[in-house]
DUF1835 domain-containing protein
Amino acid sequence: MLHVTNGDHAADAIRAAGAPGPVLPWRDVLHDGPVPAGLPLAELSRIRAEFIASRGWASPEDAERSFRERDDALAAARDEDEVVLWFEHDLYDQLQLVQVLDEAARLPVRLTLINPAQYLGPSAPEQLRALFHLRAPVTPAQTALARAAWEAFRAPDPRGIQSLLETDTSALQHLGSALRRHLQQFPWTTDGLSRTERQALRSLADGPGSFAEAFAANQARESAIFLGDSSFLGVLADLGADPDPLVTWDDGAPVRALAPGVTIASVADHRLTLTDNGRAVLEGRAAWAPRTDRWLGGVHLRAGESGWRWNDDTGQIEAGTGRTGESASAASA
C-alpha cells in the first residue's frame, strides 16, 4: 500500500497515525508558476523543478532530484495492492489531486480517496485513523472529472475552467470552489490586482506591519487556506517591482523573493509599508499593471498586458484588450 499526500507536514502526520505502507509527499505548488499543456509527467516535472529553483525554494539539483524520486515512486506503485490518496479541500491540494488522479489512474492498481474539509497536517492521529477507515474507492466519474480539470487548468485559455465550472463537479466535492478560487488569482477587471494581491495590500492599509502579520492577515481572509509563506513573499516581491512599487519594506528597500541569504525566518519580523502608489490602487484611484511575467497553470500572463481578467461581478473570466492603462504613479501624482 502506498499513501500519496500534499507535502511533508501531512506525510509526517499520516506516518505518526500508523498508516500501513510508505507515504509519498507530492510537494508541488501547482497554483504558482508554469504548468503548460501537452507534456508527459517527466517533462512537466523538469519545468516545475526549474521554476521551484528559480524562486529560491531549492537548489536546481535538489529540485530535479526531488521531482524525479517522486515520479519514480508513483510509477513503482503499479506493484502495490492499493494507492491511498490523501488530499485536502483547498486549491493547493485540489490541483495536486487532479494531477495525481490523472497519472495514477493509468496504473493497474486500486485507488482510494480521502478528501476531507480539514487540514491533514495538524490533525490528531485518531482523526487520521478514522479517515483512513472511511476511505472510498475512486470512481470512474471522479477520474473523468479530474482529467477534465487537469486539462483545463493546463490550457492556455482559462475559459475551459469556466466551462467546467458550469457543469456538475460534485464527483470531487471541493474541486469547484478550488477552481473558482484559482480564477480569482487572475488580475481583476476593476484594478488589475489578483485577490491575493489585494488582500496583501489591505493588510497594510492601516499602517506598516511585519511580514508575519501580513501573511497571517491574508490567511484569515481565506475560507480554505492554500498559499504558503514563500509564495506570499513572491506575491509581495511582484507588487514591489520597479517602477512604481505598491509595497516596500518600511525603510524603503525593495521586497525580494527568496534568494541566498533571504529566508522566511530572516524577514518574518521585517516591517512592510504601503506606498502612495499602493494606496492609490487599493482605493480605486489607479489600476495596477504587473511588472513581471507570471503563469497561472497553462496561462502565461505577460508584464504590462491586460491579458485575461476576472470579473468578480459576473463571476466570469474575460479576455483583456492588450496593454494596460493608467499607471499608479500617474493617478497618485
Summary: The two ends are 63 Å apart (CA to CA).
